[in-house]
């Protein structure tokens, strides 16, 4: 009987099924997409983490490393097969420096051989090319011993060098981020496991280890908990056993969690709103189905069927349809989510169906179930006789429900905006994402009330003017049973869609703004660290026009520091004069160059400093040191010149580093280290003055021109004199700069000491321009001249990153030219890359979900409204036939039908537009866009009017077309002959 | 015990915020097995009275007994039960009485569901109404006459003691109408069913044993064995039949003259 009934009402049933399927699918898309987005987040986090942040190095001195590692990874299906290894360390006879002796599975594939072969037998080793060993050499390690066959004593075991290796790629994750190479004599030696078993470790032990990575190709968002448990187990192993698990997975997990938290709350709100919208649509449509069964239900009641039986009878059809819609909707949601994921997320992201999918699908269905129950209740309890009255006693739509919903929406809005009910971990107000839904619903309700009232007012006018078409249209809009519902549904759906489009376009603009400033220029090439002057020189050769690229050294701060070439920056840097008080980048950059004096260059083998000084205090050690910048090295080198001696001073000389013989080194500072006895309470000091500098090269000593001097902490002292003390020790420096660092200042760093390239905060910054945003800065900081900063700093801090900013459309040519100049480009990052990265963060993914789903829901709402209006108009077939019979022109009837539909749909759509724009104005600035909101630049939140106009315009055009088609089809079905049926 | 007893029934409903008195002080007693035609102009309250008798409405005032049971004292469940076991109803429009996509037999069975499905009775009823060979045909594909006969069969599905029919012949030709009336009379004669039929059709009213005319919500007249009588109402009110309005127009004044077995009304000119 149920199936027959559904077939009898197949058109309506199909519509209900469709309208039930789409919200279920839309709701189901959310969890599927969110799961995929979580997978994207965790995989991105793994991909971008350093090697040691991608897994664990499980080390043990126990016997069963394989068992320990197996227990550690048990239950984790996403780890790579472990790579096992063993190592010990030892000095060499007569050399205290420690070097590792190790073996790691598959090591030979990761050690490019310069000469020789990989070790294959016990006692064979592979040594670093930089170590100075040669193939055939015998290496003796103090701790690796063997029994002398003659004496029985333990003697260092001879290890024979069978090959030399060059350091492999620095980013080779095989080594788990370890720095085993590059130090020359202490580079690791590689052998085979048999060496361990044929020798004894004396004074040190062999450590076994297994390296396990999280495989990003198999890792999913659902594994986050397992990852956390493994990390906890790793930390516990260090505490509770002798095993040591080294990993920076905790940092990676922290990044993952921040991102997934930033995704989960917005995604939940988006899904909740879509489920709510689905409820609204289902509430209207399923109710239609129950009402369409009104006569049958009345017959059941007439025949004395009990209340329960009547309820079941009324609910059977809608419940069957909804039950059918659930699997269909889930399948459709899975397909749609798959398409979205394929289009928006990286490849290879699996499309899973998490349990939340089913919950969301069923939750979306519950709206229909409630609607069916509500409609069935009304149909089952209203007087049966109403079903058969010639003129049903229409009941006015109550205000109570509307008032309750409006009150809830208003309270919710006030609560959300004033208090922020839901705040995610990043401090952004995820609750703002609930604003569009509440506002759209409220506006839809008000518009649904206002339209009939307005039509009623205009209705009077059309009695006198405008003809029968507008008269009938307005009368129907004013009295029509579907007007309010349609306006509410359209207003809510298009409110959400307008907000989604607005938020999307504004967010895209914000992403681009942030990315442009943070990247500094269209493309930023990350390079290996190098000495600033060498970097500048290399770039001068790679880009001789000085128009394509700028060298940049960045320090994270706070405050942050970006040092660059001002002239080049003016050509390539991203800048917005409006964010810098109208100052152009060229003008601001030009002001970064300060007053300069010549640097002190030392080229030769030996340095001599002539010094006049007081007698060093008794019991104190006074060691004279100079600080040098050596070509090719970013960090300074201190060279001791000896202990102070005598009462008046003298000449102090020491060898310069070998590199200074080929290229000039720069004298950066002179100071005396004064160390007293531990129990000394007095604070002696002594005055010193540099009276001369000389360098010896092959031709003998060359006296250098005395430079202008300055003293850190006492800049006025320029005679080469300074004070050595245990409390306030001074440093004498060549005065190569003006004593302040001119800077473009972002944020409240003005007047403070500038961090400097060495992060020593040696000199204050001098503001030459105040900007709200500057290239390369993502927080408060300064942008300075690289040359100035280099003169001020002793060296470059190890935490600095080195970049080349360029505007080149194709940076490969520049990269090639840079490589030719010895610059190693590690990676390239474009503004688009950053934008894509932001879009791939939790909030970006949630907004994408909102956009796609809201547009789908809006299209559905429009379709539902067209059908509802069509159904309502069809019910008036007799009336139209009677009007035609009484002489009304078909054109007037057509106009009436079209106007009625267009007015209703346009009112709903425009109400949605207003609600959406209002929501954007109120909530856009609070909607989470970034996992970590940037401190600078300010976000413009500019809504692109084009896409919003496109959505609304398309909706209005579709309304017009639908109205025309529906009107025509209805009019073709209106025949005067139907009036005969009106007797019935 | 009477099959139907109305005692001062008043029915008021609200339409467009205006209270409308559909029935006022209706007193009516119908004996078991009687066939009664309810007559009267449109809007007089006939259908409302029928719905009251069917238990579909509860009277605003007054008391109603069906087979000795006071309807006003029944809760909804008992009322449903009473309706399913004691009352059969034929609605005005034949199509309204049936579910179009169900077969004739299923329609009759649907009416039996509240009590007990009796397939033999279904077949018997369809045979009685002349639809014995159409049991499997969907009701929606039947003609108006066939649907009306099926409606009678549906109304009789549970062997009701009270059969209510609202304009059962209004959309039928004379032959089909006569057949439907025969069915109603047959039910009364065969099963002792009391029938109350709202009709405008003189042929129907003449075919039934008694007529009750409702005017302005009151019982205005009754007819028995071909003779019409005015009914003296609860407050002594008497409705002058329309055919005498030219002698005693509404609004005119009359003098009452008692005679041995009643009174005479005489119009006065002052």
UniProtKB/TrEMBL annotation, chain A:
One of its GO terms (cellular component) is plasma membrane. It holds the Pfam family FtsX. The keyword Transport does not apply. GO terms for molecular function: transmembrane transporter activity. The keyword Membrane applies. Residues 854-967 form the ABC3 transporter permease C-terminal domain. It is a multi-pass membrane protein. InterPro entries: ABC3_permease_C (IPR003838), Macrolide_Exporter_MacB (IPR050250). Keywords: Cell membrane, Membrane, Transmembrane, Transmembrane helix. It is found in: Cell membrane. The chain crosses the membrane at residues 267-290, 310-337, 357-377, 398-422, 434-454, 482-504, 845-867, 902-924, 944-966. Belongs to the ABC-4 integral membrane protein family. This is ABC3 transporter permease C-terminal domain-containing protein. It comes from Nonomuraea cavernae.
UniProtKB/TrEMBL annotation, chain B:
The keyword Iron-sulfur does not apply. Keywords: ATP-binding, Nucleotide-binding. One of its GO terms (cellular component) is plasma membrane. Residues 4-241 form the ABC transporter domain. It comes from the Bacteria. The keyword ATP-binding applies. GO terms for molecular function: ATP binding; ATP hydrolysis activity; transmembrane transporter activity. It holds the Pfam family ABC_tran. PROSITE patterns: ABC_TRANSPORTER_1, ABC_TRANSPORTER_2. Gene3D superfamilies: P-loop containing nucleotide triphosphate hydrolases (3.40.50.300). SMART domains: AAA (SM00382). This is ABC transporter ATP-binding protein.
């Amino acid at each position: 009987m149920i199936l027959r009934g559904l077939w009898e009402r197949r058109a309506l049933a199909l519509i209900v099924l469709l309208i039930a399927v789409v919200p279920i699918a839309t709701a189901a898309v959310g969890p599927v997409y969110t799961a995929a987005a979580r997978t994207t987040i965790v995989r991105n986090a793994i991909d971008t983490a350093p090697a040691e942040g991608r897994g664990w190095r499980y080390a043990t001195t126990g016997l069963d490393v394989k068992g320990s590692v197996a227990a550690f990874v048990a239950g984790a299906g996403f780890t790579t097969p472990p790579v096992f290894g063993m190592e010990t360390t030892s000095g060499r006879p007569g050399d205290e420096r420690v070097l590792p002796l190790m073996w790691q599975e598959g090591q030979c594939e990761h050690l490019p051989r310069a000469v020789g072969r990989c070790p294959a037998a016990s006692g064979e080793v592979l040594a670093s090319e930089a170590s100075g060993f040669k193939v055939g050499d015998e290496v003796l390690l103090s701790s690796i011993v063997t029994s002398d066959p003659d004496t029985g004593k333990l003697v260092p075991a001879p290890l024979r060098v069978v090959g030399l290796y060059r350091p492999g790629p620095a980013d080779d994750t095989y080594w788990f981020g370890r720095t085993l190479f590059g130090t020359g004599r202490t580079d690791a030696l590689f052998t085979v496991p048999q060496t361990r078993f044929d020798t004894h470790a004396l004074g040190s032990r062999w450590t076994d280890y297994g390296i396990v990575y999280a495989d990003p190709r198999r890792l999913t968002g659902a594994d986050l908990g397992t990852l956390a448990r493994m990390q906890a187990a790793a930390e516990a192993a260090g505490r509770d056993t002798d095993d040591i698990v080294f990993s920076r997975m905790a940092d990676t997990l922290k990044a993952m969690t921040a991102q997934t938290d930033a995704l989960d709350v917005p995604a939940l709100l988006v899904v909740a709103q879509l489920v709510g919208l689905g409820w609204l649509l289902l509430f209207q449509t399923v109710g239609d189905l129950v009402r369409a069964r009104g006569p049958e239900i009345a017959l059941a009641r007439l025949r004395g069927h009990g209340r329960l039986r009547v309820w079941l009878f009324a609910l059977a059809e809608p419940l069957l349809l909804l039950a059918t819609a659930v699997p269909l909707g889930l399948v459709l949601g899975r397909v749609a989510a798959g398409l979205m994921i394929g289009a928006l997320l990286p490849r290879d992201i699996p499309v899973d169906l998490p349990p939340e999918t089913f919950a969301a699908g069923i939750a979306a269905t519950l709206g229909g179930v409630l609607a069916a129950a509500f409609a069935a209740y009304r149909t089952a309890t209203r007087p049966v006789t109403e079903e058969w009255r010639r003129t049903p006693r229409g009941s006015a739509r109550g205000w109570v429900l509307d008032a309750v919903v409006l009150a809830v929406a208003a309270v919710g809005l006030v609560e959300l905006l004033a208090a922020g009910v839901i705040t995610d971990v990043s401090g952004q107000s995820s609750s703002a994402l609930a604003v569009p839904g509440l506002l759209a619903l409220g506006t839809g309700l008000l518009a649904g009330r206002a339209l009939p009232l307005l039509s009623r007012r205009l209705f009077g006018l059309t009695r006198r003017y405008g003809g029968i078409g507008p008269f009938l249209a307005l009368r129907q809009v004013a009295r029509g049973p579907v007007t309010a519902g349609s306006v509410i549904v359209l207003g809510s759906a298009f409110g959400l869609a307008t907000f989604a489009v607005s938020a999307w376009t504004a967010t895209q603009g914000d992403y681009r703004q942030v990315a442009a400033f943070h990247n500094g220029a269209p493309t930023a090439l990350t390079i290996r660290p190098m000495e600033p002057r060498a970097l500048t020189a290399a770039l001068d050769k790679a880009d001789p026009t000085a128009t394509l690229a700028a060298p940049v050294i960045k320090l994270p701060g706070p405050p942050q520091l970006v040092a660059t070439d001002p002239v080049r920056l003016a050509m390539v840097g991203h800048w917005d004069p409006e964010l810098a008080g109208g100052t152009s980048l060229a003008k601001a950059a030009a002001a970064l160059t300060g007053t300069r004096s010549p640097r002190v260059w030392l080229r030769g083998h030996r340095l001599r400093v002539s010094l006049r000084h007081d007698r060093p205090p008794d019991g104190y050690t006074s060691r004279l040191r100079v600080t040098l910048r050596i070509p090719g090295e970013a960090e300074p080198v201190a060279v001791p010149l000896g202990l102070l001696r005598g009462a008046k001073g003298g000449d102090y000389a020491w060898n310069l580093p070998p590199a200074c013989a080929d290229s000039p080194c720069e004298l950066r500072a002179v100071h005396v280290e004064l160390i007293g006895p531990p129990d000394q309470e007095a604070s002696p000091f002594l005055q010193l003055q540099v009276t001369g500098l000389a360098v010896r090269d092959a031709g003998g000593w060359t006296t250098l021109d005395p430079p202008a001097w300055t003293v850190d902490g006492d800049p006025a002292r320029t005679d080469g004199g300074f004070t050595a003390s245990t409390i306030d020790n001074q440093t004498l420096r060549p005065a190569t700069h003006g004593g302040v660092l001119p800077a473009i200042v972002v944020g409240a760093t003005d007047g403070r000491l500038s961090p400097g390239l060495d992060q020593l905060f040696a000199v204050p910054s001098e503001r030459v321009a105040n900007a709200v945003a500057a290239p390369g800065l993502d927080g408060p900081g300064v942008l300075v001249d690289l040359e100035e900063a280099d003169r001020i700093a002793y060296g470059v801090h190890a935490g600095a990153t080195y970049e080349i900013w360029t505007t080149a459309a194709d940076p490969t040519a520049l990269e090639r030219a840079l490589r030719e100049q010895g610059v190693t480009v590690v990676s390239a990052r474009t503004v688009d890359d950053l934008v894509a990265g932001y879009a791939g963060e939790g909030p970006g993914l949630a907004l994408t979900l909102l956009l796609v789903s809201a547009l789908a829901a809006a299209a559905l709402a429009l379709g539902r409204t067209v059908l509802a209006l069509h159904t309502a108009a069809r019910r008036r077939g007799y009336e139209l036939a009677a009007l035609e019979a009484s002489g009304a022109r078909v054109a007037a009837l057509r106009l009436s039908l079209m106007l009625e539909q267009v007015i209703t749909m346009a009112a709903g759509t425009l109400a949605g537009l207003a609600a959406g724009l209002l929501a954007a104005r109120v909530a856009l600035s609070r909607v989470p866009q970034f996992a970590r909101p940037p401190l600078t630049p300010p976000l413009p939140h500019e809504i692109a009017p084009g896409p919003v106009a496109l959505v609304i315009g398309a909706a209005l055009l579709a309304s017009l077309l639908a109205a025309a088609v529906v009107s025509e089809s209805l009019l073709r079905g209106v025949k005067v002959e139907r009036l005969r049926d009106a007797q019935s | 015990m009477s099959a139907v007893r109305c005692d001062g029934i008043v029915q008021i409903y609200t339409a467009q915020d205006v209270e409308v008195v559909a029935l006022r002080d209706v007193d009516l007693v119908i004996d078991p097995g009687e066939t009664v035609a309810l007559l009267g102009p449109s809007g007089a309250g006939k259908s409302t009275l029928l719905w009251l008798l069917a238990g579909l409405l509860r009277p605003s005032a007054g008391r109603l007994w069906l087979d000795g049971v006071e309807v006003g004292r029944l809760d909804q469940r008992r009322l449903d039960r009473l309706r399913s076991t004691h009352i059969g109803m034929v609605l005005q429009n034949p199509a309204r009485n049936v579910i179009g996509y169900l077969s004739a037999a299923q329609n009759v069975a649907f009416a039996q569901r509240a009590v007990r499905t009796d397939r033999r009775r279904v077949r018997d009823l369809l045979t009685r109404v002349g639809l014995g060979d159409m049991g499997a045909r969907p009701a929606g594909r039947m003609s108006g006459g066939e649907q009306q006969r099926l409606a009678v069969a549906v109304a009789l599905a549970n062997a009701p003691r009270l059969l209510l029919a609202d304009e059962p012949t209004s959309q039928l030709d004379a032959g089909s109408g006569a057949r439907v009336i025969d069915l109603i009379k047959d039910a009364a004669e065969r099963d002792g069913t009391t029938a109350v039929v709202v009709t405008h059709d003189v042929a129907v009213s003449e075919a039934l044993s008694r007529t009750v005319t409702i005017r302005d919500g009151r019982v205005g007249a009754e007819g028995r064995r071909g003779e019409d009588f005015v009914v003296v109402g609860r407050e002594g009110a008497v409705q002058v039949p329309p055919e005498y309005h030219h002698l005693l127009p509404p609004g005119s004044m009359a003098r009452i003259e008692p005679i041995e077995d009643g009174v005479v009304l005489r119009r006065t000119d002052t």
